[in-house]
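Self-study notes.
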Amino acid sequence: MDNKIISVQNISKKYEIGMVASGSFRETFTNAISLSNKKRSKSSKDEFWALKDISFDVNKGDVIGIIGRNGAGKSTLLKVISKITEPTNGRIVLNGRVASLLEVGTGFHPELTGRENIFLNGSILGMTRSEIRSKFNEIVNFSGVEKFLDTPVKRYSSGMYVRLAFAVAAHLEPEILVIDEVLSVGDVEFQKKCLGKMNEVAKGGRTVLFVSHNMGAVRTLCETVIVLNGGKVAFQGDVETGVNIYLGMANENMSEMGQVNFTMENAVGKEELKLLGIRLKDELGNIKGTFSTSEEITLEIDYYLTEKVVNMRLNVRVLTGDDQILFAGSSHSKEPHSKNKGYYTCITKFSKDLLNEGVYKIWLQAGSPGYKELLPEQIYLKFTTEKLTSSGTMRDSVLPGYIAPVLNWEIITK
């Protein structure tokens, strides 16, 4: 028996550069009038392919994460699947009702109240009035907007919009639930509720397509992932492999050579401080971006103070590839109470046998009492650790976790 609920067949989507082209009737009609009044060159430089020849199938009950860098085509793909926009080539076959939450307020009428929009949105999703009534109280309780139920939604905050829109989409029991990054608008508590509800929806046998930059949520919720890059499928398969591929794409513009240098002309920082360089060194003093997990890593930071700064401090965080903080440190306890004008190098070390195999980022911040920002820009330096055997070759197995201390074992015979 065929279990496919979504079949994406050679989908491509082309946009005209400089034109608003969501594919909606109004915008298509407007563009057609515009083009009839103004001749436009059809050269390839005027075209942008947001999606290019994408094919995959989704089975009933699958929970799939769709990940990729900004501009990879994730939102466009969801709009095509949700029938919000038509593909330029290819076709989508759906075997179930789709509930989409792609943008704040999608399917809501601003002049109508929250109560009225629940019925309107439910009808758009193909629900009968009796179905909506049977779920009405659950929707309202989950959304937490009871006090504002009879207020026009144009007066809602973006967070309230999302709460109500998600509650409608998740509770009206569509066969396919499509969720974009809009959950980031809500507060942390509501995000947890949403993830819990999506888990519940998935366990109930319904299909979920989930776009997010939160790799923790993707790992928790999804069974497989599709990685998009440049409008094409770069990978489809298990979550961990897909996440690692995505993180590699997200970090490809960071230095992998173990250092970032600036001149005085392009130095990063505010007037008082100019960051001149960050570098990582091994125990022999070599600058590099890949280390054995058994090596001690030295971090050096060069900067120039254009004037005296009282209680100067540097703050460092070591992050995972998806921005989870592993540990942090501050130079405050080692710094004198003030620093005069001049050049400085701040040095710290990361212990050997601390980090597991993986890709990590160093985040740097500088400030003074009152948390005056001296380095407002986000500065990252990427580095990689690898677990090596005594012969210098990679180990076959990788232990789970980010921290991998060497544990000393003692076995006592009794």
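Second protein, same conventions, sequence then structure:
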Amino acid sequence: MESTDVVSVQVLAFGPLAERLGGRSIPAKVVKGTTVEALIGQLELTSWIDFGLAVAVNGSRVGVDTLLHGDEEVALLPPVSGG
């Protein structure tokens, strides 16, 4: 893997995900073309996908199969419950 294959993304985490990651805004490095799902796995948050985790890249909702190309903002939005 060449260094040009590694890109930066900014992960925005909300609610319990921010607590788990130790902050609301986390920089991450991924290989160009990595899926959102692989990034979630890298962050050790895969179980959240089954709980209804929503993801947005640069402000648009996307599926976990979306490819990352670098310099993107990836927002992880946990399911909301209330009463």
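Instructor comment on the second fold: The helical segments are 16-21, 36-42, 47-50.
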